[in-house]
Amino acid sequence: MRILLVHPNNYLNIGIPTGLATLAAVLKQRGLVVDLFDFTFVKTASSVKRPLNVNPGIYLPTVYTLEDLVVDDPVQSLAEAFSAKLKAFKPDLIAISAMTSYFDEVIDLLRQVPPRCPVIVGGVHSTICPKDVLLKKEIDFICVGEGEELLVELSYCLAKGGNFTELENLGYKKNGRIFINRCRPFIDLNILPEPDWSLFDQRHLFRPFMGRVYRGSFYTMSRGCPGQCTYCVNGAMREALKDCGRYFRFQSPATTARQLGYLKEHYGATWFKFADDSIMLFNEQYLEELAERLEPLSIQFGCSVRPETTTERKVKLLKRMGCVAASVGIESGNEALRKRVLNRYMSNQKIKQAVEILKNAGIRVSTFNMIGLPGETRKNVFETISLNKKLKVEAANVYIVYPYPGTVLSWQYKTKFRDATGKIIPVSRASSFAFSTMSPTEVEGLLATFDLYLRLPEKKWPQIRKAEGSCSAAIRLRQQLYEQAVNI
Ligand code: B12
Ligand code: SF4
After folding, report:
1. Each residue of 375-404: b (16+ CB within 10 Å) or e?
2. Are 301 and 159 found together in one domain?
3. Residue 57 above 50 pLDDT?
4. How close is the Cα of 329 to the center of ligand 2, in Å?
């Protein structure tokens, strides 16, 4: 049985997805033949034209860049690349992992190059919107929740002509009707094999940090999150998978150390991005054991932390493990908005404390911020800029809030993720949800200049305001100002 895994992604959005890498490892362990079709390095004519959106504060220059690594790649369409892969590999099953934002692109591709074998889709979108996926005639099956056991069982079933209708976590169609089977208990994360990175283009391992290039990628030691933030899909996932067991689950420090050691030895990986929703959710005892086991590996890593769970003791342990960078979710500089709209209860004071603790430990701090929030004013956006300024963070990532299906925000505001033409509204059009008191154009202008307001002195702000526009003069001005900001 030959299974082709598919990773839909934006061009050069590097990093090996943990879900697919784990699925690949499990499939191989059970004797199945696996290959990968990855969108990340398919250099299409449109992706070449699109400028890479790099936040000037994030990276120091390195001797070579990601663009240097792809300079000799041929320009081809996704359809050409996919068709060539199908011809060469001849899969018996196509297994696609899709977030909401990539699902339409997947369907377009399957329409242009119809495969001659069944197609299953797993990941966040099929878990939260199973019917949206199964209603597409290009899709035969879906996976709701974890896929390790289901994918193996389905592969064997299809190979041997067995009955798949009872497989747990499976959704399928029969005589025009949709069936979604019951869920199976969550898997014990300690029995999973090391993620298989060998299927992926090794340029995924390019990791620039502070002017040096390391090798490494994403790693997760937990799944789920106990948080209840209104814009996050975790609430919907917890609900969809409520019969599977405790939603926030984690593997033992021994498993983490063994797997990271393996990735270091086999791929030369020494720089990891822990993609766990928040590492600070682990208790001190757990972190202590983790520190003991990770210290001898001499790895470096970046991770996400929730400010209200950050303590000096925990940060000391993080540092001992090799933590060099942390992202803190601020989301809004206005406490009332953060609490009322986002259901995040930490105060600005608590955020300041957490950032100070991290910085004092020599950890590089970046933040996550959102704009375009329900009821948000222009003044509120400047409160977010001002908080970041006060915190003197190395980089501030900013997004326009997007009400993903299943989130509290999506049902509170009755938003639809498909527009009137039936297309999924892309992240690039998040401002069209028009939640805030500002116009979508103003929100987009603030997104484009957020970093300039943050980095340049206030006397430049009138000029930055002019650079918020979308006309060519404004874009030119923005570029000039960015050059000044990089040199500060
Ligand atoms: C790491 C991460 C990233 C990384 C890597 C993404 C990746 N593909 O791995 C990066 C930084 C690139 C990223 C980017 C984005 N992300 Co992100 N990301 C995550 C995060 C924190 C962890 C993902 C992970 O590794 N999980 C662990 C693995 C083991 O789980 P898994 O991937 O779900 O896979 C399991 C099952 O789903 C299933 N499965 C998965 N695929 C398949 C396929 C088949 C065939 C089968 C059978 C089963 C199956 O089996 C797997 C093993 O059990 C999640 C949060 C979360 N809790 O999932 C958000 C999350 C997936 N991201 C999200 C979003 C919104 C984004 C962005 C759009 C953010 C933005 N505004 O730019 C971008 C995407 C756009 C872009 N340009 O890439 C949302 C997705 C919401 C949605 N409805 O789609 C999430 C859920 C965050 C959230 N809580 O809201 N992200
Ligand atoms: S936003 Fe972060 S803390 Fe909140 S529920 Fe999602 S993953 Fe958990």
Report:
1. ebeeebbbbbbebbbebebebbbbbbbbbb
2. no
3. no
4. 9
